[in-house]
Each structure stands twice: as structure tokens, then as C-alpha cells.
Amino acid sequence: MADTFKQVILVRQDLKLPKGKACAQAAHASVEAVLRSNSQIIADWRHEGMAKVVLKVENEKELIKFFQLAKDEGIAASLITDAGRTVISPGTKTCVGIGPDKVETIDLLTKELKLL
User: Fold this and answer.
1) pLDDT tens track, the chain, 116 positions
2) For a disulfide at 113, which of 1, 25, 55, 59, Cβ 3.0-4.6 Å?
3) Model's pTM, two decimal places?
4) How far is residue 50 from each of residues 35, 58, 89, 102, measured CA to CA in Å?
5) What is the CATH number of the domain that holds 18?
6) How many whole angstroms separate alpha carbon 23 and alpha carbon 12?
7) What whole-number percentage of the chain has pLDDT above 90?
């Protein structure tokens, strides 16, 4: 069976972001992680429909933990820090994008997290 690919986006729940702000931050995380990814993985992921899953993390500590785990495993990842122009303070870490990468690889890191 051929590999399948996905990307996960982690969103902090303690910030209680308005839906539009959370969506914008998740989009930043997704795009930035793709820009850091291997071109062949991106091509395979795009061919499959660019699966994305948005998951919850409780706070900044948990967000950074998963960002570091992804980096340690050699998976492209992005940590989004807000500019503070709207509803949260400048420098607030809001989201992490992980992948795209093989589903099995990402699931090893994030299987304990719940869907947003």
C-alpha cells in the first residue's frame, strides 16, 4: 500500500480565540509548515487532496512541546507567533502546523490530541 499523507494544525484552547482569529492563525500555521516541507512530500500530499486535521492543545507549554517533538523527528513544523494587531498581545504563540508527512509518522506524535 502506498503511503498516505496529512498535515495537522494545533490550536491553543486557553486563548479562547474568536473563530475567525483561530481560523486565520491555523491558516498561517498550515501555509508556513508547507513552505518548510520537502517538495516531494508536498507533491504527494497535494495529489491525495491535501488532508488537514485541526487538533486542540491546552496551552502554550503543550503547543511548544508538540512543535519540538515534530522538529526532533525531522518533520516540517511551524510555530505561529501573533503580531498583536487585533485581539491578543504581540508575541502570543497561537498555533503549530506539523507536516505534511506520512500519516503514521504524524499520528505517532499527535494521536492523543482531540479534534477541535
Assistant:
1) 568 999 999 999 999 999 999 999 999 999 999 999 999 999 999 999 999 999 999 999 999 999 999 999 999 999 999 998 889 999 999 999 999 999 999 999 999 999 99
2) 55
3) 0.96
4) 14, 26, 32, 12
5) 3.40.1490.10
6) 12
7) 95
Q: How many independent structural domains does the chain possess?
A: 1
Burial profile 17-39: b = 16 or more Cβ within 10 angstroms, e = fewer: beeebbebbbebbbebbbeebee
Which of 101, 96, 106 is closest to 12 using CA atoms?
A: 96
Sign of CA dihedral 64, 70, 72, 74: negative
Distance CA 110, CA 69 (A): 10
